[in-house]
Amino acid sequence: MRRLAWKASMTETLEQPLPSSSTDRSTPNARSADHTALPEVIHVRPWIDPVVDDSGHDPRSRYVERFWLGVLGPTATWLLRRLVAGLDRSPDGYEVDLVDTARAMGLSYTSGRSSPFAKALQRCVMFGLAHQTSDGLAIRRRVPTVAHRHLRRLPAAVQTEHETWSQTVTLDELSRAHQLAIAMIDAGDDPDAIEHQLIAVGVGNATAADVADNLARL
């Protein structure tokens, strides 16, 4: 597949603001912006950020499901997870065929910036979970805690849950949960399901997330 020049296409596609519902799409400018082409193939590499890499959350974690999903949106969240999963297999980076990726997610691919897939890429950049490089995107392998300005737009119940989640976890709680998690793995349980299983047996959300995250780094 042909690779289009990144700076001449993807930059315009991701950085231009999305049109409001009142935008007249019949104007020349609207037509030109809408048909700015996305590249069909890009290179994805890790975004190295020592602070977030150490303290952030795995994009596939329950924290992201509970608190980032309502901010980022479902399509962008799933796209971020797919891109990070690719970095698990190729830590130094890899090429992504956007056409195949869109179709694998159940989305039609169009080169214009108004498509759901293009908007999902745009939202990853907009919320600081990806940034442009000369030939593609750098993706965060860990995402930061949701900022207060985003959190306050979520339902009150979710805000309260986040406040509870963020409470300090004691060393004893972590130690007990870690022992439980090791026993689960020794029993043959799926490591990717450990966080949910710990919560199911009464371990707190934040504790379960920390333990599962620590095990994933081993």
Q: If you had to describe this structure to a student in words, what would you say it looks like?
A:
This protein is an alpha+beta fold and 218 residues long. It has two domains: 6-17 and 33-150, no CATH class; 167-217, no CATH class. Helix content is 54%, strand content 9%. It is built from twelve helices and four strands; from the N terminus they run ααβαααβααββααααα. The protein has a four-stranded mixed beta sheet. Strand 3 and strand 4 form a beta hairpin. Helix 4 (62-72) crosses helix 5 and helix 5 crosses helix 7 (116-126). The model is unreliable at 1-8 and 16-35 (pLDDT under 50).
Number of strands: 4
H/E series: HHEHHHEHHEEHHHHH
Largest sheet, strands/sense/barrel: 4 strands, mixed
- Give the mean pLDDT: 80
Helix-residue proportion: 40-55%
Looking across the biggest beta sheet, what order are the strands in?
Answer: 2-1-4-3
Give the arrangement of secondary structure elements:
Elements: H1 6-15, H2 28-34, E1 41-47, H3 50-55, H4 62-72, H5 74-89, E2 94-97, H6 98-104, H7 116-126, E3 130-132, E4 136-140, H8 148-151, H9 156-165, H10 171-186, H11 194-200, H12 205-217
Parallel strand pairs: 1-4
Antiparallel strand pairs: 1-2, 3-4
Helix pairs in contact: 4-5, 5-7, 10-12, 11-12
Could you give a quick summary of the protein structure above?
With 218 residues, the protein is an alpha+beta fold. It has helices at residues 6-15, 28-34, 50-55, 62-72, 74-89, 98-104, 116-126, 148-151, 156-165, 171-186, 194-200, 205-217, and strands spanning 41-47, 94-97, 130-132, 136-140.
